C-alpha cells in the first residue's frame, strides 16, 4: 500500500477514450500492473467535468479538448479519428506515436507518477 501521506494522494488517471472496450481493458491492465494508481473511467462527454472536479495527473481520451491540454500534466490522445497515430502530451511537449503500445501508455503513466512526487 502506498503511503499517501508522503505524496499527498495517489496518482489519478482518467480514461475517457473510445471505444469503451479499449477504455475498460486499459483500466483493468493499469489496475493490475500499477495498483498504486487510482483509475477512473468516464464517458467522453464527461471528460471535462472529471478533469475539473478530480484534477487528474493523466488523462487518456480520443478527442482533444483545450481544457484537458491546459490543465492535465500528461495526456494521451488515443487513436484520434480511429487512425493509427496517437499523441502524448507532457506539459508543452507533444510526441506522435505510430501504433501506440501498452508499454507507451505505461511509460506515460510512470512519468505522471514521477511528476506527482
How would you characterize this protein structure?
By secondary structure, the chain is α/β, with parallel strands linked by helices. It has helices at residues 4-7, 20-33, 47-54, 66-71, 102-116, and strands at 12-16, 38-41, 58-61, 74-77, 85-90, 93-98. It has a 6-stranded mixed beta sheet with strand order 2-1-3-4-5-6, with helices on both faces. Strand 1, helix 2 and strand 2 form a beta-alpha-beta unit. It is globular, with a radius of gyration of 13 Å. 30% of the residues are buried. The model is unreliable at 1-7 (pLDDT under 50).
The description of the largest β-sheet is:
6 strands, mixed
Give the overall shape: globular
Strands, count: 6
Which class do the helix and strand fractions yield?
A: alpha/beta
SSE pattern? HEHEHEHEEEH
Q: Please state the average pLDDT score.
A: 90
Q: Please identify the oligomeric state.
A: single chain
Key structural traits:
117 residues; alpha/beta; 6-stranded mixed sheet
Short description:
The protein is an alpha/beta fold and 117 residues long. The chain has helices at residues 4-7, 20-33, 47-54, 66-71, 102-116; strands at residues 12-16, 38-41, 58-61, 74-77, 85-90, 93-98.
